[in-house]
Amino acid sequence: MDLSEIDRQWAMGILARAGTEQLVSAWDAWQPQPSFTWLRKPETGLVMVRGRMGGEGDAFNLGEMTVTRCAIVLDGGVVGHACTQGRSHRKAELAAVIDALHQQPETRQELRSKILAPLAERLEAERSKRSQASEPTKVQFFTRVRGED
Hints:
Elements: H1 5-17, H2 20-28, E1 36-52, E2 59-74, E3 79-85, H3 89-102, H4 105-134
Antiparallel strand pairs: 1-2, 2-3
Helix pairs in contact: 1-3, 1-4, 2-3, 2-4
C-alpha cells in the first residue's frame, strides 16, 4: 500500500502540533530505534507568517515565527523531513525520523497505532478542552429586521 500525500500530510501535521515532551515520551516506547544519517542537521530560523482578512482578502504580513527544520535518511535510504514551530532540535529530529518510518509500509501501521493515533487523540482532547473553556465567552451577534417606516 502506497502512502498517499494526504496520509503523509496528516502524519506530519500531528508531528508538528505535538509538544516536544509528548513526542519524546511516545518515541521512547518505539523499538528498535532506527539509525540514520543527517542530510540537514536541525537549523533554527524565522519564517514570515502571512494572513488574509476573512480568508479571501489581500495577503498581509502577520509577523515572524521561529521554526526548526531538518532532514534525515534512514539506513534503508528513506528520507524524512521535518519543520516544526519553535527551537527544539530534538522535536525536529524525532519528527523527521518518524516521517521516514511512516513512509515504509512495514512500519507504517504499527507507527500509526503506537505513536500517531495516540498523539492525535491527545491533541484533539486538548483542542476540545480549550474550546469548552472558551465557549462561555462566545458572543452571538444578530440583527433585527426593521420594517419599512
